């Protein structure tokens, strides 16, 4: 297997994934929109590229795409930008793509959602379909739930008296370490042409969860919109766990110490 991988977007999720891949013997090309990160990438043995989805050109991206695998880890919903990116991918050596999406594509209807659920039209879903319909390479879509870990602490969400809606709904979240491990497993096990939900096993209600995470880090207690009984959704991770034989590092969101320096 060719062990060269390009990661479009080495930010909160892309950078630790790149570090994990380098650690395991992969040659990683990483993109950023910030010149300040160039030396950091070099120190981490990541070949740096300055690339913006909004300003693509063949001269800027052609060498970056000289890989077998492309991981797309940018949160943009710029449909035209992705269409242009696809024209460059289609003429490159890329054979496999991982596109990081979100469980926000699922509509809340007071039910458990799986990868087989019918989805309503949205920009993110349209971008997913652009990749899935392209037959010049194989795409695996990862729909991550709410992201947390390290400098992204759930206890800091809804600060300064901001009211938390739907306290009787359920939490769908995933730690950064599990995200990185899942991405590595997909790459190392060569799982292509699939769609996966990625979410922790246990789904506490929003009231219990935000009381805990704020208590753990010692900030103001949450304020809830008590009259809000909006529809909820519970994201199923069964397909992912079975395909990868994966066990979550952080399966139960209520058993985590959110004040831990290792979190």
From TrEMBL:
InterPro entries: NAD(P)-bd_dom_sf (IPR036291), NAD(P)-dependent_oxidoreduct (IPR051783). One of its GO terms (cellular component) is cytoplasm. GO terms for molecular function: aldehyde dehydrogenase (NAD+) activity. This is Nucleoside-diphosphate-sugar epimerase.
